[in-house]
Design brief:
Order of helices and strands: EEEEEEEEEEEEH
Helix content: under 10%
Structural class: mainly beta
Distance between the termini: 19 Å
Largest sheet: 7 strands, antiparallel
Number of strands: 12
Number of helices: 1
Strand content: 35-45%
């Protein structure tokens, strides 16, 4: 992924992938967001949003959830309203996991994986894929951090994990 941006307010993270070949188990990828407080920005998240959920305060919403990758355009879309988050929340880590039903898949097994991060609905902030972590089954794709002045910035570095979704959620915020 490429792109770094400061003073973000409302961000949309979108994910797409190609459906699995006919006769094979469906590729089910999921966007996950973990939100961390100032006192523990790399430890236990205040809350996690995934699998057709939203944050308790409504600032993070999974708007679209696909189990197959079939559809037009981006299959999963998550909205983060950074400007509405409590001041004590300082870090949001966004990742992608593969639901491995019927075997172990990595990103190398899923064709056409692409990510897009926009501010609002039109201003492209970052885009790219996750080819650099093809052997992983989970990946951190964006880290949003709030500075002391209250402005949110994006680090779009991709980092792979060999973990199932539960293990990934426990480790995704680690530095």
């Amino acid at each position: 992924m490429s792109g770094v941006r400061k003073s973000l307010t409302r961000v949309e993270v979108a994910l797409k992938w190609d459906p699995s070949p006919s006769g094979t188990p469906a590729n089910d990828l999921d966007i996950i967001a973990a939100v961390y407080a100032e006192g523990d920005p790399h430890g236990t998240p205040e809350y996690v949003v995934h699998f057709d959920q939203r944050a308790p305060d409504g600032t993070v919403t999974l708007n679209r959830d696909s189990r197959t990758g079939q559809g037009f355009g981006f299959d999963e879309v998550m909205t983060l309203e950074l400007d509405r988050m409590s001041e004590r929340l300082r870090r949001v880590v966004v990742g992608v996991v593969i639901q491995n039903t019927g075997g172990t898949k990595t990103f190398a097994d899923v064709d056409g994986v692409a990510l897009r991060i926009r501010e609002g609905y039109v201003d492209l902030v970052a885009e790219g894929g996750i080819a650099g972590v093809s052997g992983a089954s989970a990946a951190t794709v964006a880290v949003f951090a709030r500075d002391d002045g209250g402005a949110w910035s994006l680090d779009p570095a991709v980092r792979g994990f060999a973990a199932n979704p539960e293990e990934y959620v426990r480790s995704m915020g680690a530095s």
